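Quick one - inputs below.
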Amino acid sequence: MFWHIYKYRVKSLLKTKMSVFWAFIYPILLGTLFFVTFGSSINKNSIETIDVAIVKEAESEKNDSFVEMMEKVEFEDGKRIFNILNLDLKSAEKQLEDESIVGIVRLGDEITLEMGKTGLGASILKEFTDEYTRRFELIEDAATIDYTRIQDVIEVNENRKEYVEEVSLGGEKIDTEAQYFYALIGMACLFGSFIGMVLGKDIQAVNSPIGARKTVSGTKRLTLMLGDLAAAVSIHFVGLLLVVVYLKYILKIPVFSQPLPCVAVVFLGCVMGVELGQFASCVAKGSEGMTIAISLAISLGSSALSGLMSPDLKRLMDRVAPIVSRLNPSSAIADCFYSLSIYSDYTRFAKSLTILAVEAVVLVVLSFFAVRRNKYVSV
Amino acid sequence: MEVVRVDNLVKRYKELVALDHLSISVNKGEVFGLLGPNGSGKSTLMNCILSLLKYSKGEIKVFGQEMKPDSYDLKRKIGVVLQNVAVFDELTVRENIDYFCGLYVTDKNLRKQYVDEAIKFVGLEDFTKFYPKKLSGGLLRRLNIACGIAHKPELIFMDEPTVAVDPQSRNNILEGIKELNRQGATIIYTSHYMEEVEQICTRIAIIDKGKTIAVGTNDELKALTPTSEKIRIEILDFDESKLPEIKELPHVTSATYEENHLLVSCKGGTHNLIRVLDFLKNNNVNFGRVYSELPTLNDVFLEITGKELRD
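Output:
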């Protein structure tokens, strides 16, 4: 019975223009729009080697070590992070003015930095320089206080160096604009509510003649609901995967760096989105306008609060209403992605994923109880 | 054997009483008609029996058991043809029938056989791959019926299945209903078309304002009217002084002359028309067209409620 319902619901949804539009076309259109707006800068920022001018004003071991380290550091894909140009100050300043280099490192008694426009390259250069200076000073201090502990300090700094390389220098990983695409995927997941609305409409006698026919049939409501839900989630999930493939491999947006956990997030996001629409339809009982209003309010509202319109809004929500922000399904989806690709924090990822799963299950249960053994005042 | 029993059913929509202590009983093998004007409560009664609607008071039993929203064992024996066409626009004729049949029948081979039979039954063999939007109104109604009866239910509810259907399709549908009944199904049929109800129903309940005002067979209901035959004769220039003599004829209950027509009502007896025509010939009255009408359910409704069924 379940598979019978599943099979025909898949057929029906694939021929429903609304579900095809929301599941496949709309996220691709929006993703393309985002890409046209700022996507190209993401790619540029994330993969290009940074041109830096070195102006040697004094010879020292510290300065030599700094240049040596700059030449060694690489992105994860093996590409060098810095392309060093040894120039005199005048030539370097001219190139900085022309924006052909990101910054000038002056190696005198101190290491000083001059930078032009802000951007990802400038941030990386500044972070690298600051980090090197801090470490060098720390080792110097240790040697002054107790030279026998120098080895310990070096070991601590070795670990610190790894941390800095993996998280801060990971190019694509700290790209703030990529947040828009994570929020977009979150929103696309929640737009499954438009497919869910169709399911909700077709399961209640008060909503449609098909709902009436199914209600008087000999099949249990739970079977009807789950068969429909599974079909809708399948369609929406495949649609989202196509969107992700489009973003990652055609537009070259640096998303989905860890495919399997990301697929799990998208799957649960799809369940959440579809179930949201089904729940709204079950609760609104007969009012199509109310159903659409509830679905839109939740999907668009939660997407906005998760940073779709501005990443600052998400940070603000995290600060002023952390519980709302935590329970916001779109935020939970986006947070799963951040946890994986920015923080590499699997505990946080698991928490967000669990929140998403629990919310989805709660909605399924609530929807079922909203229609179970229902009799209506009028049909 | 009683298949459906409704006792003292009351259904209110706020101040409006849609069903007012209504009681009916439907026996196995009947085509039971629910006849009444629009808004009389026929569909409401059907939806209450099907456990779609809440009701304020009363008791409903189907196959001897209380009908509840989760009475799935009972529901499997029931087929429903709703007034509104309930099919998926995105599925073909065959897929629609298979989908709804599959909500009752899990065995694939049996289901295939049932679907084939349903398609043949409603005469949609040439349209199995058509989508509903490509079907005419009549064919769509036939598909709606096929979706409701494909699983071979013992009890079938049909709520105005011929609304907005062309005469040819209507006749096909009515013949199909009779055939279903011959195959053993008990049918509850609602309509506001008295001709349909007269044609196919073995027993009829006339409903008005949520009450059952009369129940019986076609003949039993018509016996409730004082008129058993109405004779209408076209006469251009009739001497109305002869009306009392006509009223004196055997079995004549009334005689009037209006708009060049002599109207004679009779109660009981045979050969009433011949007797009236003989009277006219004997009195040298020239007449044109002659009509003899038997009483209809509308006359019954008029007799009991004082208004036309079509009002």
